Amino acid sequence: MRIGELSRRTGVSVPTIKYYVREGLLPAGRLSSPNQASYDEGHERRLRLIRALLDEGGLSVAAIREVLAAVDDTGRPVHKVLGEAADRLASRPVGEPDAALDAARSAVSALLARHGWRVGVKSPQAEALAGALAALQRVGHGAFLEMLDDYADAAERVARADLAYVARNARREDLVESAVVGTVLGDAVLASLRRLAHVDASARAYGDGRRGDGNAGGDGDAGGEGVGDGDAGGGGAEDGDRRGGVTGRGGGVSRRGGGTSPGQDASAGGAGSGAGSGG
Fold this sequence. Notes:
Layout: H1 3-10, H2 14-22, E1 30-33, E2 36-38, H3 41-56, H4 61-72, H5 78-90, H6 99-115, H7 124-138, H8 148-166, H9 172-206
Antiparallel strand pairs: 1-2
């Protein structure tokens, strides 16, 4: 197909497609004449993947480039590819060191030890968790630490479901792509499910027990809407470095008791969180 048809089929403008090609996200089309390039279903699939990672996953163009490079590297173990996607999600500043951050890092280290998670204590995922816990401490909610093991238990269940889904794919390229998509987009799914569960739990605890109670913010027919605006939209291609609004971040993939984990080991200093919920 020509670039115009590729644009119509994906809803991505021609200038944006050319931008992705220049940025190395999308392979160039096969030249059919000096001024014409031909594209196929592989280009369409990759283009849809790029848009999903950008718009729903909230990744920057630079981060997407690194993730796709890992996906296309057939010599890289699947475990490492998952770690690449997880690292891109977890990369965020944790702020200046202080007593709250030091305490949070110690709490994360203890958590990893208790659950037997084969994840580096200095991995991006562990640092991101420590940063979040430190922020809770600074705003007077340090007692949240008491809930950490409950959250970890839930994350383990999600992780096992993730890997069961990924394992349905026999071909490496399908397995890797589904795992990466699940890692990135699964966070958005998990965050939305959490908000829905919050509305239901709030209605049951503080409302009058009716579905869609006004106190939970929902309507009588639909049974309540998730709190928060749910805006997960990223920027367009030309301003693709602007991050989207994904709020949730998935837990590390592991099995308690020293099972396997699609994260980098401690000696490598990284950890793959594995596929996110639903992918």
